[in-house]
Amino acid sequence: MNSRPPICPALNQWRSRVDAALESRLPPADAAPQKLHAAMRYAVLGGGKRVRPALCYATGMLLDVPLDWLDDAACAVEIIHAYSLVHDDLPAMDDDDLRRGRPTTHRAFDEATAILAGDALQCLAFELLSRPVAGEGPTPAQKMQQVRTLSRACGSWGMAGGQAMDLAASAGRIDEAHLETIHRKKTGALISAAVRLAADLALDEDVPAYQHLDRFAAAMGLVFQIRDDILDITADTATLGKRQGADLAHDKATYPVLLGLDGAQRRGLELHQRAMSELVSFGSAAEPLRTLADELLNRHC
Amino acid sequence: MNSRPPICPALNQWRSRVDAALESRLPPADAAPQKLHAAMRYAVLGGGKRVRPALCYATGMLLDVPLDWLDDAACAVEIIHAYSLVHDDLPAMDDDDLRRGRPTTHRAFDEATAILAGDALQCLAFELLSRPVAGEGPTPAQKMQQVRTLSRACGSWGMAGGQAMDLAASAGRIDEAHLETIHRKKTGALISAAVRLAADLALDEDVPAYQHLDRFAAAMGLVFQIRDDILDITADTATLGKRQGADLAHDKATYPVLLGLDGAQRRGLELHQRAMSELVSFGSAAEPLRTLADELLNRHC
């Protein structure tokens, strides 16, 4: 089950690139402290759909950013995602035992190591964005903007804040607007960062193209989350690689709980259409991003 | 006990500056998610000697860096320190109940909130270093160097790695060289970062002055840790603001355990002298840094 790749061609085309880039950027497992390094590698290299790197590369293609300029950012956003899963799975948080078809990091190692591995991974993401460029590459100002993009997405106004709000909320007691706020922070902020990290190397924040991409990413973040919520109910544990029905077991508010399965599917479609409308002005250059967005709407894994 | 400032004039002169800067940079407690923001403020604003900001400012004075160029870095390094204490105090790590004369963050709030507050604080530190400069200020290249300095200090090769090695070690089974390696990472890396963050705004990494400051900081990191180890034995809980004898209770390897109290004191003096020798070439401009170093050697709090 571990090595089975998801059946998602648009994602898979980026998978080997980002996996190789991650492999070379993570600390070697034989360097001290070995257990910590092994846990960091376990958390990041154990499969995963690599949605955020794919969005980063596909946005870069649209904007003619050389792909090797994007490897650090693609790794950074995936490493942040991996750290957040390690911490979210901890007993004091969601208390999950299974992730990507394997024991969660605190089960495979121990809680202290999982906490520290998450901490060190967050830090590594920023280290990657700050690496000096040899030869042609992004300017220091562009790289600063990337650090700003990623740090704002991760913190209390973004991903960490969304997880805090998610823990505080329980099913039935929140409405769709509240759920959307949680998901815009918890999942959406990092999905948006994946797109922005590429845009930061080509565009100023205040030009219309940047804002189109930003609204595309915001809509797609919700599409992704809605699909996640639906799969939690309709897919099986082996396909998911995490416990099927975990959201329901945790009494979490989800789109299907609030809107029903059909309602959630309709909402996903609407948001996907909204995302597509933001790509119109880019013409055929946006084709890789469109293909990826279609796959995220319809994915079964 | 909470508000009693340490009797350390060289530290205290920077205290109100960095406390005001931190206050204005932390998320307001009334903004959602309130509990998370309250925990972040609790962790950072609840006292603390502010050793790292003081080292940053004093190094900046030596190098003629305007103090207001240093506020973000001084806050960033203190915020990293605060997050590391929150996570180190967790039940799965050192399981401490008292910190800075108050309940630790997971005791005052809950474990999930403490984990997330630490996570969001780490991220905030990098956000502060990436803030756009209005008017005169550091260049993007200098700020990138600061992000690099801080991120390398925090991760698995630095602070987080040192904590992992500290958890793995137990008293009696390690020698002084191993203990020094742990402390160079766990405490020393961030102390060095405090000095480097100021040097990054004035010097290239490869000039002798940068290297003198770096070796000064490396030696002072150990001086600071040795003094900490001694105070854990000789001071009382009220003065420390954390449980007296916690190191012994945790069966931790410390300098006094390995060298005896007198031996540890002698080692601290030797390292302090080594640190002082690195400042000779700066002449009288290094006076603030010398005063601070003397205070760190002799502090009672």
Low-pLDDT parts of chain A are 1-5
Fourth-tier CATH superfamily name of chain A: Farnesyl Diphosphate Synthase
Most residues in contact, chain pair and counts: A-B, 52 and 53 residues
| Integer count of domains of chain A | 1
Number of helices of chain A: 14
Task: Spell out the helices and strands of chain A N to C.
Answer: HHHHEEHHHHHHHHHH
Determine the mean pLDDT of chain A: 92
Class per helix and strand makeup of chain A: mainly alpha
* Largest sheet entry of chain A: 2 strands, antiparallel
Proportion of residues in helical segments of chain A? 55-70%
Overall geometry of chain A comes to: globular
Q: Any overview of this molecule?
A:
- Two copies of one chain form a homodimer.
- The first copy, chain A, has a single domain (9-298), classed as Farnesyl Diphosphate Synthase (Orthogonal Bundle).
- Chain A contains 14 helices and two strands, in the order H-H-H-H-E-E-H-H-H-H-H-H-H-H-H-H.
- Chain A has helices at residues 9-25, 34-45, 51-62, 71-88, 105-108, 111-129, 140-154, 159-168, 176-199, 208-234, 237-240, 246-249, 255-277, 287-298; strands at 98-99, 102-103.
- In chain A, strands 1-2 form a two-stranded antiparallel ribbon.
- The two termini of chain A are 13 Å apart.
- Residues 1-5 of chain A have low confidence and may be disordered.
- Chains A and B meet through helix 2, helix 6, helix 7 and helix 8 of A and helix 2, helix 4, helix 6, helix 7 and helix 8 of B.
- Chains A, B: This is Geranyl transferase.
- Chains A, B: Pfam families: polyprenyl_synt.
- Chains A, B: InterPro entries: Isoprenoid_synthase_dom_sf, Polyprenyl_synt, Polyprenyl_synt_CS, Prenyl_diphosphate_synthase.
- Chains A, B: Belongs to the FPP/GGPP synthase family.
